[in-house]
Amino acid sequence: MIPFIYNNSPIPIQNLLISGREYFRHKKRYNSEFYEILDAFNRGNPNEVNITELTSFVKNAAKSPFWKRRFQEYEVNPVSKDIITELQKLPILTRYEVDQHFELLKVPLKEPTSYLATSGTTGKGLVFPQTASMERKQWAVWWRFRQRFGISFGDWMGLFGGRSVVPSNQNKPPYWRYNHPMRQVMFSPLHLNAKTISEYYNKLRNSNLKWIHGYPSQLAFLASLIREKGFPSLPMDYVSIGSESLLPHQIKIIEEVFEIKPIEHYGLKEGVANISLTPCGKYQIDQDFAFVEFIKSDLGANLFKIIGTNYSNHAFPLIRYDTNDIALLDNHGEIISIEGRNDDYITLPNGVKIGRLTMIFLTATFVKEAQFYQKSLNEVEIRIVPASEYKREVHEPIILNATRQRLGYEIDIKIRYYDKIYKPNSGKLKFVISEIR
């Protein structure tokens, strides 16, 4: 859609434009092949790599100049019966290499392809090709996760994502638009604040929505505003989140207001990894969609890099790709939590990197949003959006003491207060911003 035309159209026309665009996306995504893939995923074993598909993928990857050269360099046999052992001869593929050799990574196919954009791990965008079957497989594996918890295709969703569906200069309700093909009420994150929360609350309540989905930072902010205004809780059947790390204090406020614990899955548009929460509370690696490895990091005990191979996308093969994300594993190799990005760490003056800073806000429901910002080795700033019950003389020492316990006393710590923490165009809240390289 052309932004100027959309932003200057009447609201009913905006709803029509959104639904019209999403109709074609829905028709392309949810066709007969999608349901066949979903059925196969539901009948298969998610813990097992599909060796047949992986082998076919590697043979196809050898057609790209980049992988042909790399297979030769590391003596990888693309037709080996033990294809996983062969792939593990390869070094880890970095985002820098993908940027440098983008054209050489692509494989020309007869199958239709489209281009997908991701905001990337460093803020720099990546636009890459994907096959139509890849798109359907990715949505099938996500819907397998949703169906495990009882969500069905007919359920309407309240969506709190990163898309700007309401013009920024609109200063009166409604602060939402309708996507009828996808059965979504799309709420504007840009307009959500203490003055407009009653409009959001009444819309959620009067629409009888039982499922909301979005970034955890937005849903936690929504929940904190509801509680701050003293509105009754809004029981939901499902609260699902994605795209950001889910922090302990966010879980607490979301569960308190919506009376249900949020469910999460980890995935990337690049399709190199997918990890889903199961109803029993454990994380499942969806190896039947992408081949995932965990490589020990230097960031601390039991912290592992998430390395993935997107064997569902033949158009743009990424093999042993460093997602720049970190998983915390127990001694048996089970996932305890997805810890966030590799750069979600503070670097101390002595060079030590400290992570798991989310634990500082484990019970901090007196905070709406929080973010760490490090500009130099000697100083870190904690950005706080306080909740209504926040008392500076009481809660600031609590935050400082908890931070000192993790960062020590060799680094200067400052707390600064904001009405709202800036988010980039993606709408995602980055928990740690570090200028240290």
TrEMBL record:
InterPro entries, alphabetized: ANL_N_sf, CapK_Type1_Caps_Biosynth
Name the record gives this protein: Phenylacetate--CoA ligase family protein
Biological source species: Robiginitalea aurantiaca
